[in-house]
Amino acid sequence: MTSYLKSWFTGAPSASAVLDVPTFLKVSPPASDDGEDTETDDSVPAFPALNSAQRAAPTPSQAPLILSDSALMPPPPVPSLASRISGVAPRPASSLLVPTSTTQRPQKPSKKREKVALSPGHSPLDWAALKSSGVDLRGVDSLSRIPPSVLKQHRSKDDAWTAINGKVYNITPYLSFHPGGERELMRVAGRDGTHLFASTHAWVNADFMLDACLVGFLIPEPSSDSP
Ligand code: HEM
């Protein structure tokens, strides 16, 4: 047995190791679909099949080369443990990956825009429903021309007006619906809020949000000496 294995690895055929591969000349045909097997021959098929890859395997003289450990492909490099900092995850090998950690301190949330919890029934959808319900949200019979002095008189929560882009709105009904809270919205009550509004959320369409609350148009203060 040992000499046989030796001859296999070295490729030298030994006298005692003669591969005696039996040759089958007859192979049984595949069974027919209808199950009617006309052949009464019960010979077993050759295994491996006569034309199989196994039979075409190398002879002892073509024995496969077995590589030693040093001839094999080296393993991937071990990440350098020396450069690791305690408590900090190692940097990924690819610079395209997201860094696993950062040395920057998290930024404090901006104080400028804080969301407030709106009371139930005061979502933006509820506001849209109220606007289209036909309920009077203006509090005036007709639109008028409003100078800053008149606007100034409407600065209480129950009666709050503001001017945005030249239009004056009654913001009292919107106070409890404002996602930024009543307090923030009241900052523009009784005055022109265009600048503050735009610097807080320029993307909000005040014209659309408050169309049902329009009370008039902001005009310059009439000069006292005019007739
Ligand atoms: C007068 C008309 C105003 C209308 C129609 C209005 C409308 C809105 C709307 C629709 C949002 C939600 C925006 C979003 O989710 O992106 C919002 C958020 C907010 N508003 Fe107003 N706003 C008005 C005035 C103001 C004013 C004068 C201030 C304060 C100076 C203010 C402060 C805020 C804040 C802080 C938020 C933040 C919440 C967030 O991050 O969404 N708003 N406002």
UniProtKB/TrEMBL annotation:
Family: Belongs to the cytochrome b5 family.
Biased composition (Polar residues): 51-61, 97-107
Ranges for domain Cytochrome b5 heme-binding: 143-219
Region (Disordered): 26-61, 92-120
Taxonomic source organism: Mycena pura
GO cellular component: cytoplasm
Protein name: Cytochrome b5
SUPFAM superfamilies with a match to the protein in the record: Cytochrome b5-like heme/steroid binding domain (SSF55856)
Presence of keyword Heme: yes
InterPro entries the UniProt entry points to: Cyt_B5-like_heme/steroid-bd, Cyt_B5-like_heme/steroid_sf, Cyt_B5_heme-BS, Cytochrome_b5/Flavoprotein_Rdt
Keywords: Heme, Iron, Metal-binding
